[in-house]
Task: inverse folding
């Protein structure tokens, strides 16, 4: 349960003085519905009211606070405003009001009385003026007027003053909390205590105080990251205790399969496979992410893992993000399966009627050992006899919910997620921190790096000549057509037009595949290309993910500037899969944005998926890279993963130490850490800590 010290923070904002239901609704939009939400909603700006000159000396164009005496009200006529003439003995100023009511003015600024006012000082026709001062204060009550005023992101309908006041109230409800951070860490970074940090973060005095590196803000960001890391570690730790099926894995079929493969596994593949088999034997439930750059050979590792499960008498399933990819996996694995005596079937949204029915029946009867498919696998009608392993290919294309839905189809099935999208370390730690990881670090031997060049579209004729020569040598070529924004139709038109013009050069060697085609037509185009009947495949991004034709040596990407960095890398990964030197030609328009230039430069200067991912992260930011929602990437309110990845690394180390010393979180520091988890609403993880 949430510790009592935090109760007040988790009450609704309506418990704050001056916050009624209407304001609460607006605050909920701006920050959240509880007191804590207001506390964690940090200012993004600051107004400095400390400039307090005599009028004669005052500089216009900035916020000023002035002591004045009201001299006269001059009411406006029609559309002209009311002017309140005032002075401080050294000079004169007009206070300007549009649509001000007389009574109100008389009350706020009575003639002959002194006031302290604050607002933006302007010059209008040689006169100093302030329109609608932000503050009009009776002398003696200056404490109402802050020298520095935090500015919060705006929500329509919510007056800044109201929000500020609510935040102030909220801050009075914050308790002193026991320190959860190490003293040495606090000293090293000059971080204040949590409460002091929170108070200071809401009281910036200059732009420097708003920087993420300002100690109070940095501490709060670290707290948030630490809560995230600790929660993930606890979930991971608990999973270690979660029972999975301990599969006894005979190795006969596995050895047969290894012999039947046309190549030897790379060391990386071998290590990954042993880890995976180890997981599945252990009696714990496997949740593993298998990472490997495009072309590193993840599929065969997954297949061998499936095989082990099948040999143990259970079923396995492999889920791919696209129909094209599912069918390709189907073809490869059916071929392998036949040699070894296992039954492989494919099920996608395209399978309907009798054949679908037959597959479903066979699946339930246990007559299918390995089912390969797409999202269609989630459907309720898909039932296994005994599902023990789920493989998710291109994992980042699926959400957590989808993985869970599949999990429910077996008895605590093991889960192997695969991704070629290299995930930078920071993201790995924060988004997939609850999974075990293994990476295949190398590509199969004999692969050459792909030569990548950027060429202006104006030289397309030269490119076509070059392709002609390659086709003459019997090589195969992809030609990727540009994405046209938000219009699949024009996408299609571009691909069709391009395939026509290339057909004029190369005749029947050209095949066309795009997303709008009937599935079987697309399949047959891809199959003709795979078999070598067609040698030039014009395609939209349907080939982006996972398509494998080792004979292809050239990929041309038209209007490469319209593609994302990761996408370009994925596309390029379609070549360089055999032993011949491969080429990637990025055709670019003449005028392209600076960001696009940087992307093209990044892809052409390195072949290393991790470097590209880091660059992608730098150019686009964390949320964009993985698609926040899909990837289950946590939303941080204070921390910024793009700029504070160093804090993630520190937190990770911190957490490892904490857990190593005190796995059940029993010490007094651990009690404080548990409070931290509740503070950032990691309740589930906090409860795990209690159970141990
Ligand atoms: P990815 O990791 O991108 O999914 P794939 O599994 O599609 O890669 O494999 C890429 C290509 O490399 C395939 O043609 C596959 O048959 C081949 N391959 C896989 N492992 C090896 C290996 N150890 N030696 C040689 N070729 C391999
Ligand atoms: Mg793949």
Result:
């Amino acid at each position: 349960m949430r510790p009592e010290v935090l109760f007040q923070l988790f009450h609704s904002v309506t418990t704050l003085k001056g916050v009624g239901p209407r304001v609460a609704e607006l605050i909920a939009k701006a920050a959240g519905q509880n007191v804590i939400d207001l506390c964690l909603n940090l200012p993004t700006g600051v107004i400095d009211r400390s400039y307090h000159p005599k009028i004669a000396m005052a500089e216009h164009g900035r916020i000023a606070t002035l002591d004045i005496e009201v001299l006269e009200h001059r009411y406006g006529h029609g559309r002209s405003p009311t002017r309140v003439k005032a002075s401080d003995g050294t000079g004169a100023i007009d206070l300007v009001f549009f649509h001000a009511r007389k009574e109100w003015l008389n009350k706020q600024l009575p003639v002959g009385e002194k006031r302290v006012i604050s607002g933006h000082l302007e010059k209008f026709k040689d006169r100093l003026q302030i329109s609608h001062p932000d503050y009009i204060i009776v002398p003696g009550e200056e404490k109402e007027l802050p020298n520095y005023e935090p500015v919060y992101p705006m929500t329509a309908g919510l007056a800044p003053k109201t929000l500020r006041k609510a935040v102030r109230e909220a801050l009075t409800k914050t308790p002193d909390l026991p320190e959860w951070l190490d003293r040495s860490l606090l000293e090293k970074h000059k971080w204040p205590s949590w409460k002091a940090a929170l108070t200071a973060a809401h009281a910036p005095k200059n732009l420097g105080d708003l920087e993420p590196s300002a100690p109070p803000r940095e501490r709060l960001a670290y707290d948030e990251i630490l809560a995230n890391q600790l929660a993930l570690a606890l979930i991971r730790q608990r999973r270690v205790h979660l029972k999975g099926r301990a599969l006894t894995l005979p190795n006969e079929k596995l050895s047969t399969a290894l012999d039947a493969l046309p190549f030897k596994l790379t060391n990386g593949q071998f290590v990954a496979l042993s880890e995976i088999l180890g997981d599945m034997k252990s009696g714990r439930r496997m949740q593993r992410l298998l990472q490997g750059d495009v072309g590193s050979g993840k599929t065969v590792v997954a297949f061998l893992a499936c095989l082990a499960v099948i040999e143990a008498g259970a079923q396995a399933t492999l889920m791919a993000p696209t129909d094209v990819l599912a069918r390709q996996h189907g073809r490869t694995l059916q071929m392998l399966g036949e040699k070894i005596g296992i039954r492989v079937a494919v099920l996608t949204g395209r399978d309907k009627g009798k054949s679908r029915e037959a597959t479903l029946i066979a699946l339930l009867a246990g007559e299918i050992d390995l089912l390969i498919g797409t999202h269609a696998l989630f459907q309720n009608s898909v039932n296994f006899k005994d599902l023990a392993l789920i493989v998710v290919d291109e994992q980042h294309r699926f959400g957590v919910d989808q993985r869970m839905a599949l999990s429910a189809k077996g008895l605590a099935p093991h889960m192997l997620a695969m991704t070629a999208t290299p995930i930078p370390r920071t993201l790995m730690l924060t988004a997939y921190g609850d999974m075990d990881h293994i990476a295949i670090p190398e590509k199969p031997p004999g692969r050459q790096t792909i030569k990548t060049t950027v060429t202006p579209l104006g030289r397309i004729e030269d490119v076509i000549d070059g392709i002609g020569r390659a086709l003459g040598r019997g090589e195969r070529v992809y030609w990727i057509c540009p994405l046209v924004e938000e219009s699949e139709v024009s996408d299609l038109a571009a691909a069709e037009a391009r395939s026509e013009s290339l057909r004029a050069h190369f005749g029947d060697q050209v095949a066309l595949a795009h997303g709008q085609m009937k599935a079987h037509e697309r399949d047959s185009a891809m199959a003709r290309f795979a078999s070598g009947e067609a040698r030039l495949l014009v395609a939209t991004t349907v080939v982006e993910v996972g398509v494998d034709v080792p004979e292809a040596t050239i990929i041309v990407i038209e209007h490469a500037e319209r593609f994302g960095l990761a996408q370009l890398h994925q596309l390029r990964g379609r070549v360089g899969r055999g032993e011949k030197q491969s080429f990637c030609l990025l055709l670019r328009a003449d005028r392209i944005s600076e960001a696009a230039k940087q992307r093209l430069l990044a892809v052409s200067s390195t072949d290393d998926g991790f470097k590209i991912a880091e660059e992608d992260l730098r150019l686009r930011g964390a949320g964009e890279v993985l698609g926040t929602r899909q990837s289950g990437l946590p939303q941080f309110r204070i921390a910024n993963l793009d700029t504070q990845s160093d804090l993630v690394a520190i937190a990770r180390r911190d957490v490892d130490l904490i857990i190593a010393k005190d796995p059940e979180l029993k010490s007094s520091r651990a009690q404080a850490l548990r409070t931290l988890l509740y503070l950032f609403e990691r309740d589930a993880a906090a409860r795990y800590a209690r159970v141990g």
Residues 298-299, 393, 420, 546 surround magnesium ion (ligand 2) (CB under 6 Å). The first helix runs from residue 21 to 30. Residues 50-145 form a domain with the OB fold (Dihydrolipoamide Acetyltransferase, E2P) fold (CATH 2.40.50.140).
